[in-house]
Structures
1.
Amino acid sequence: MKTRLLFAALILAASANFYGQTTYNWNTAADGNLDDPESWSPSGFNPTNAQMIFEVAGSYQVGLENDMTSRYVILRGSSGLVTFDLGTQTLTLSSIFLVSQNAQLNSGTIEGTMQVGNSVSDKSFTVSGANSIFRSATGGYVGRSDSTAAASGNSLTVTSGATFDSGSTFIIGDSRKAVSTNNNTVTVSGAGTTFTAGAFLIANLSEQLSGQTANNNRLVVTDGATATLSTLTVTRRAPGVTSSAANGNQVIVGGGTGPTSLTIGGAVAVGAIGTNNIIRVESNGTVTATGGATTLNSGAGTSLILEGGKYLAAGQKFTAYGNSVIAISQGGQLTTGELDLRSSLTTTGLASVELTKLTLSNTSKINIAISSAEDYGRIEVANGVDELVFMGTLNVTFADGYEAVAGSSFQILSFGQAAGEFTAVDLPDLAAGLAWNTESLYSNGTITVIPEPNTAMLTLAAVGIFAGFRYLKRAAQ
């Protein structure tokens, strides 16, 4: 028996020596430096391959006098805020930087795999200031359920000129167990702030388990910040998973002050599962998709919403399936190569849609709202070699109390070659005595308001009778 115990001890010792990892605990709620041995227990602190654990409750500041290389940082205090103020120094980790307690980086550089909220909820990490850099070369996540505990309400904020650079896959809402990963957020804000990642996933149901949820997770880029992603996927589910939910997840770009941009180098896919999953681009916001197709899948409420913002995918294909929606208003702009529209496109106000090709089907629905004689949506298809074949439904409405008058003309479509007709054309009601003329709709995309034919004839007849009466009256005199 003693021999077995000794053998087991030798194996454990050899394993510890092989991995070369020692665990050290931060031993005070007061301010201190990472490279000060007095800040750690047990004694004899050696940062090489160390697992550095912060579980002291309270708020305190952590500094660094010299660049340091180690293995792990794990933050898991029950309360308080840990502030890393590293000056111009760099903390390099060969493994993870795990945030299970609220923390922030106010200066300096941290290199390691960012993980915020692993099977815990309502934890935050903030990278703030022009002198703050976090490099997560092997990717990272915000909100991951690796156990039976939920991982919801966690957040990563990059702001005030800070830099976050992840060279690999980054996930918001990574559900690996039959629990919730809801309401997790990455926010990138402020002029000079940059966020870079490889493949970016929102609401990832990565295991074949029923009962998983990944709802209302968000990427927000605002107030003049810049973000760059290799690809963007909003909702993804592993094969074989059927009883799971991924609803209400969003990418929001723009709003606030200053021009804000999100650039995506590859494919964009929204709503492979779930409902109401959205890319929303607000005023001051621009999304540029430079190297891959954009796909809105068929889940109800899957949407691209341009509220004064721009989605620029010149030369790329854009496909909108089933129940998805493209909605453009407040001067928003969609520019793409081929638009394969199998769902609905709605333009309101001075909305602009610029395409090199428009492909319609029997399920296509184009909705155009007219707010004034000049303020209405327009769809422009480049005059190329591809013929536009009209199919589906054209629905035109008045907005903001506008009422057209005789002679009002609206060129809602612009195209080169065209054939066919819409299956249905629904136009708004006009005042008494007016009618729509759609004779030019299929030649140059124009609809015009004219006097109603019967009314016009009666008017001419009345004018003729009145003129004849006056002539007879003069003749009798």
2.
Amino acid sequence: TIGIETKLSHTRCMKSTGISLCQNQKPLNFLTVPDNSGELFHRSGRKSWIQMKKVKYLQDRNPGVPGIIYKLEDEENKVRKLEKVRELWLAYETASGMNICDLYSGEKIASNRLSIDHFVPWSYVANDELWNLVPMDKGNNSSKGNRLPEWNRFFPRLSSAQYNLYKLVFSNDLVRKRFEACRIQNINASWASETLYVPGNSRERFENILEHNLRPIYEAAMYQGYTEWKGKGHCA
């Protein structure tokens, strides 16, 4: 069991959890809670501890599978956070005066048919990071399904589209505003916020950073059994 104490001397540790709480043989202070809330605290704390240990156990034994903690959530809690990214691409279309192109088919996308796709499938990455998201026509989504786009064919398209978007982020107020709205939900990787989405990157540097970080994820997904998708068409 997991006990709740106000002090823990250096001679006592929580042996039942397998975790030593002794640090330099000094007393450790714990949160004091009212007596009548002890049972509730105990139950919720035990449940959280068990969940944490389960996730850690699975993650340690599946190092090539990211985001296990999110994959264990109930289906109703697995909400994709893509609407702000869609609004970002629509702002790009307005600011650039160019139609958005479906990354895989090469077809122009009407604004009411714009969908956002995970280059490396969400079922593997379990996140909605901007650098892994691409514009796609709603009607083509089922064609790609839960597969990996052929790297040599589609990564250059992805990196080019991402760089074109990046340039407008730092040169157009509307696109920058939509980009900033994406930060909390869609730009969480430290390498992306610190090296990719910063002013001054050349096309070559931007695409090299993206490839350096995305390719290992892509290859790990392939190692886990995700199949490759050849796609169709050419994107101008």
3.
Amino acid sequence: MGNYRFIHLGFQEFLAARYIRVMMGMDGLVSFFEGTLPGHVGPPLFNDSWWREVILLCMGDSFGEARNPLKTKQLLQRLAGIGPYQAARSRLPPEQRLAGLELAATSAYEWPKTGEEMRSELARQIVGFFGDAPAMLHSAPIVRARAGSTLAALGDPRFDPDMAYLPYDDTGMAGFINIPGGRYSIGTRKKDFEPLMKQLGIEKDEWEYYENEINDTLAPVAPFYLARYPVTVAQWKAYVEAQRAERGFEYDSDSLNGADNEPAHDVNWANAMGYCRWLNERLQRDDAPAALRKLLRSGRWQITLPSELEWEKAARGVDDGCHWPWGNQIDPRRANYSDTGIGGRSVVGCFPDPTVSYGCLDMIGNVWEWTRSLYKPYPYDAGDGREDVRAKGDRSLRGGAFYLIQRYARVAYRFYIIDSRNLYVGFRVSVSPAISS
């Protein structure tokens, strides 16, 4: 027999799916993709991009023929590797486990008759996997990003729709993490600057563009709280809906695009500060998380954007000399920047890391984050007007974004722009000692 080629890949995938579905049957279907079916033993296919559509077509075909809801549930559990199939699936590498779980969740989303209970369970399983930092680090970022997008489609149970989509949190702080105060050396130390430039492959005639981050002077920072995640699209939408009727309220309609659990974007500095003022009021209501409500009602604390000093302190953690939150070597498994290969914004929490001191996630890459600070030279002096939120001037952004190379996706790199909306710019909020409006 000769070889055949298909001009339309979708038709080839359809025929492959139909053949596998008929030949293997429902009972042998997942075993085939798992690589455990007798006569077809081999590596798992769950994270193979070519087989992805074939697997989803097989699942849809099987759901269509399954008259028994219990059979459908068992098939999804088998593909996801949960319930009675969890022990067997645990023998596979983490990336294969997450890929199988994501395929099951996507199948359930695309076939509504699988039921809300099953879809909710699969969403909870993805969240559970996201909480296993070592397993996530051993899973390809693109697989994590895909799982996060599926989680958004199912409804992300990490966030509370009755509390402006802030994270559920049994501490009563709605996802705000305590960052201790002290004296902190912001920026890159002078002795570290030249080795860092060489490590990053930056030519010497370009070093002057990075000298603005050199600093050896300690600056005092008071204790504060920083959000675990950047502000999400859902959180931003809650603000827009609350403010839409207000006279003079302006925002970019593009900022409402994207998955609800991705970071907000196309938000200018004035809008970000407006969100802070609104959230500050919202979280003083009687239904707000108790510990956070008590802080804000005291008048000594407020929701605001972090200063440059606060942002960098939280990102670096206890090691105030490291170049990235996890150490001194860039790692595409730990942040969404150009080498990571995602090519766009990723769902918040896709890059958990057990080595990050305070637990603030996505500090590097994904989207730039506004700070409340005016861009001014070091040494850092909070009393020189840079923290005046009424002053005019360029505001500092931190963290880099998904499209940038490693030289920009660092803890100490400083960027600033005029107050404009940008596809690559979002923000995260802090609970900081109260300052004048």
